[in-house]
From TrEMBL:
InterPro entries the UniProt entry points to: AA-permease/SLC12A_dom, Amino_acid_permease_CS, APC_YAT
Protein name: Amino acid permease/ SLC12A domain-containing protein
GO molecular function annotation: amino acid transmembrane transporter activity
KW Magnesium (keyword) present: no
Keyword Translocase: no
Compositional bias ranges of the Polar residues kind: 1-11
Species this protein is from: Gibberella nygamai (Bean root rot disease fungus)
Residue ranges occupied by any Amino acid permease/ SLC12A domain in the UniProt entry: 50-503
Amino acid sequence: MSLENENNGGSNAADYKSGTVDSTAGQQFPVDNPEAGATNPLHKNLKGRHMQMIAIGGAIGAGLFIGSGTAFQTGGPASVFLGFLIVGFMVYLMMQALAEMTVLYPINGAFTMYICRFVDPSFGWACGIEYAISWLTVLPFEISAACNMIHFWPGSHGINNSAWIVPLLVALVVIQFFGVRGYGEVEFALSLMKILACIGFIILGIIINCGGVPTDDRGYIGGRYWNDPYSAFLNGFHGFCSVFVTAAFAYTGTELTGLAAAETANPRKEIPKASNQVAWRIGIFYVVNLLLVGLIVPANSPLYGSATTASQGSPFVIAIELAGIKVLPSIFNAVILIAVMSVANSCTFGSTRTLQALAANGMFPKKMAYVDKKGRPIPVVILQLLFGLLAFINLAHNGGTIFNWLLSLSGLTILFVYGGIALAHIRFRKAWAINGHTLDELPYKANCGVWGSWICLLICVLALIAQFYVALYPVGGPNLDATNFFQLYLAGPLLIFLYLLWKGYSWIYEPAHRPLFIRTKDIDIYTGMREISSAGISAEDRRASNAELGEKKHQGGAGAYIKNAIRNII
């Protein structure tokens, strides 16, 4: 299915309100079958508990447990704390915008299709392809990282990484055999372990900081590592700018709840719940943990650069080692291994659903849209697992260099995607108002409204500018090095190339895509809606349904609110 009807496929507001419109006429997104073009529909096997864990499970991984170590070394503890706090706020705003659109349009491909529909098909295609590429290339990286985790244990020394790559890939294949339900169950179990580990580290970090560990001869630490001779802000503003991309990479995966909407039994209920919990989880599992790490581990610790240290310089394991606690480093290394495999599991979901949705909408080879009777998008799953074989490249003599270039394809991608989601929400809200609708008719409203999306977009732009500055002038030099610049910023030129590629293709084969962007008055907000928002339902009925949902949400007063808050945290 192509996007040629994007600008003229909608009905006018009057016909829609009267219930006389045929919502399938010229539609861009199917109303009852969002997986159009596939042989079979994707199965709605994800439950509420799966969605809760996917919201955080796809995010907690190597970016938090390992990648944050680099951020501490270049930016210092205060820069890491503020950087992750700012980017975390941006992620929360993005998730609110995504939840509002996803509840209204719970379609496969989610935000990629929203950008195509509300902004520009060429920009949406570029974001979708680059997002898929990022997951395709991150998978072999995660597998290689898992091998490094395994080498922490003495029994694995001397064993070639290929002995671990094969069983790890086989495990991912087995998970895919069970379809989305298998993904959900595995993610639920692995995420639960990671969450318990994060809570445990918070308790341990407080004890270490207060001098409560007998084997730690540092005694009470307090804010020692934020003052002279240490520094809260290493490398000043330059170091602070270097933290943003690390933080964005660490949060990658939070948006997977949007992709999972098409395979969720009750998206109207579960998507908002998962999105609202993001704030609690970002604050606790990221910001608080990293604040404690910054308090108990000096940013200039020699263990960061030691080849023999546990988990390749993980600040979490270094914190345990500095406290002199035995056995626990090995246990936390196992947690990091679990986290890495959890992200690898998310890689297969993120890339496959994005590519299958693009194929179903005529923006990728049609054969990639195939879904079997058990709801598994087989061709794109095979493609993702084939990319997993790239983990063997790291075994070559110059494999590390090749790997760095592969990873450079995914460096900034998530900032472009999050900015695209915010822009799509801004455009959607404007089109919604132009067509005579009020916010009371929306099944779910973003807590921070359209201004939240503007702030999210602004933070994305500032983060991209900061990374451009760091790419030109890296912390510690050398300055103006072409190789270093493109390894840090290759995702930017790639996005421009993909955009121009589809725009050029559209100029010949898709005339409707020729304009630089879709005019607000031409945005079709009606096709593809479901449930209470679908055609034939009056504005009054939508308001009544949403009001009833709101009353149920607020029943029980302050006691229920506190209970729900505690439940969200746990």
